[in-house]
Specification:
The structure holds 2 protein chains of 2 kinds.
Chain A: H1 7-17, H2 31-45, H3 49-59, H4 70-86, H5 93-132, H6 138-163, H7 168-174, H8 177-199, E1 207-210, E2 213-216, H9 217-224, H10 228-242, H11 247-263
Antiparallel strand pairs in A: 1-2
Helix pairs in contact in A: 1-2, 1-4, 1-6, 2-3, 2-4, 4-5, 4-6, 5-6, 5-8
Chain B: H1 3-22, H2 31-41, H3 45-58, H4 73-87, H5 91-128, H6 132-170, H7 174-186, H8 188-198, H9 206-217, H10 223-239
The chains are: A mainly alpha, B mainly alpha.
């Protein structure tokens, strides 16, 4: 009898895909969450215990991607599992694992730069300025706007993945993903630049006295370029982050250096 | 703080963190959400809101990249807000209390992500037997460990630590306060540096300066304004690039 993935199965995957990062571990990262998401479908497609055993183990493997895109990958996997279950003569297990590990990296890259590198700083920047002026709706805006997009991507993703599993390479190209990622990166970079200029309020209170007239160092710096101190500090830190230095360590150093410079009255 | 309220705050901290694990990373564990919520519970929403803005700025770039564990911003946010509202001290004192607590607490998350391996081993066994109920149960156990990794440090810090440090932070000399103020002002830089790193395309880096210069010289332009300009420039740049036509696949 032909086993079929129905709409309600995909909807189940959509709901379960929210738990993708559950029971997170260094060992398998989101692997456990992926298995949890596929559980009902595996139960349905493989009534035979031996086949089910193999399928469950397949999805306990290492997995890590961007949370919002996982339902898309799960949709593709659902389609592949469906074929696998209906074709007892060939084992597509390796192909399924390959698709998972082939997609998770690129999608994580897209998600991290578009959502965490671009969307979130924009929303955070707006929410911070609203909260700073006492607007009580700032947290609500921060939650509702990005998550409307999140839910849309997650819901559409599972159906889209299932439908285009057969020829998704061609379909991906028609989206021109790389171009849109570049647009998002440019937007993200400009927003971060704006945030550095508007929210990094590091100045120097130093004054310099020459024959009874005092010169404020800060106004000298402002004459060169407004916000030059925040810019230089950010660029120095960026250099070290890019080199792969431990971020918690850098933060600790920044705290100590900032504290000493503040104590000595060099920055404020 | 009373044991009851400490427990409530600890449970809320654990739940907010679990939304990242079980509700698809909805960003509910960000300071701009956590601080106002804790403020609401303790009866001072506005203070929570103001602290939320300060803490969000500091932790803006903080994110787990490939499983690394940054400073625990949930613990820092809950503790900082509870401290400010109950003691009435300023933002500098709150940072002084919250940031070290957040750094120390990140070890609990590292512990949880390591210990879950034991849970995984059991789940593997259930998978080997085709027992999907067993797998679901172990999934629950693993999540409970993660819950404890956040709620325990919050409870300990609030119930045992807060009153103890409140006396110490009350009488800080002025030059020390200047140092703390400087730290608060300079800390967001690390987040911005991390954001820049996640937007790592060397060829596009000049756009960072473009965004910076617009606001530095025209302070009236806000984030929305720069974002709008950014979309236009991005579209013009990318869709007019002839070389770009040739290869368009990330996979």
């Amino acid at each position: 009898m032909e086993k079929k993935v129905e709409k309600k199965d995909l909807r189940k995957i959509f709901w379960r895909s929210f738990c993708i990062q559950g029971s997170y571990s260094f060992e398998r990262m989101s692997g456990f969450g992926f298995c949890f998401g596929m559980l009902p479908l595996i139960n349905k497609l493989y009534p035979d215990k031996e086949e089910k055993r193999v399928a469950l183990k397949r999805h306990m493997e290492f997995f890590n991607s961007h949370s919002w895109f996982t339902s898309f990958i799960m949709g593709i996997v659902a389609s592949m599992e469906e074929k696998n279950a209906n074709d007892p003569n060939t084992d597509n297990g390796e192909a399924i694992s390959a698709i998972k590990s082939g997609l998770m990296g690129p999608l994580a890259g897209i998600g991290d730069s578009v959502f965490w590198g671009c969307l979130r700083p924009i929303c955070a920047g707006i929410a911070i300025s609203l909260a700073g002026s006492g607007n009580i709706f700032a947290p609500l805006l921060f939650v509702i706007v990005p998550n409307a997009l999140h839910f849309f991507i997650r819901y559409k993703g599972v159906f889209l993945g299932y439908d285009m599993a057969d020829n998704f390479m061609e379909s991906m190209e028609s989206f021109q993903i790389r171009k849109w990622m570049k647009v998002a990166t440019i937007l993200g970079l400009m927003v971060v630049g704006a945030l550095v200029a508007s929210w990094l309020n590091v100045t120097t209170p130093l004054v310099y006295t020459v024959e009874e007239s005092t010169i404020e160092i800060q106004s000298l710096l402002d004459g060169i370029m407004p916000g030059i101190l925040p810019l230089v500090i950010t660029l120095i830190l960026f250099k070290y982050v890019r080199k792969g230095k431990n971020v918690n360590m850098l933060m600790l150093i920044l705290v100590v250096v900032g504290f000493v410079l503040g104590l000595l009255g060099i920055i404020q | 703080m009373s044991i009851g309220m400490s427990l409530i705050l600890a449970v809320i901290a654990g739940m907010l963190y679990l939304t990242r694990r079980l509700c698809g990373d909805m960003m509910l564990e960000r300071p701009i959400v956590v601080c106002p919520l804790i403020g609401l519970i303790l009866g001072d929403y506005q203070t929570g809101l103001a602290l939320g803005a300060t803490f969000e700025l500091i932790f803006m770039g903080a994110q787990t990249i490939g499983g690394s564990v940054p400073t625990n911003m949930v613990v820092a946010s809950v503790l900082g807000t509870a401290f400010t509202i109950t003691t009435g001290q300023g933002t500098e004192q709150a940072l002084l209390v919250a940031i070290p607590a957040g750094v120390v607490s990140s070890t609990f998350e590292i512990f949880a992500k390591t210990v879950v391996s034991v849970v995984l081993a059991r789940a593997d066994k259930y998978a080997d037997n085709g027992n999907s109920k067993g797998i679901s149960f172990m999934f629950f156990v693993g999540n409970f460990i993660h819950f404890l990794a956040y709620s325990v440090p919050v409870f300990v810090a609030i119930y045992f630590g807060m009153d103890a440090v409140a006396g110490l932070t009350e009488s800080i000399p002025e030059n020390i306060m200047n140092g703390i103020t400087a730290v608060g002002n300079v800390l967001p830089a690390i987040g911005f540096a991390m954001l820049l790193n996640s937007l790592g395309d060397k060829k596009l880096f000049p756009f960072f300066f473009a965004g910076f210069l617009i606001v530095a010289y025209l302070p009236a332009v806000n984030v929305i304004g720069v974002a709008a300009i950014g979309v236009i420039i991005g579209l013009l740049y990318v869709f007019n690039d002839k070389d770009e036509e040739k290869s368009d696949s990330v996979f």
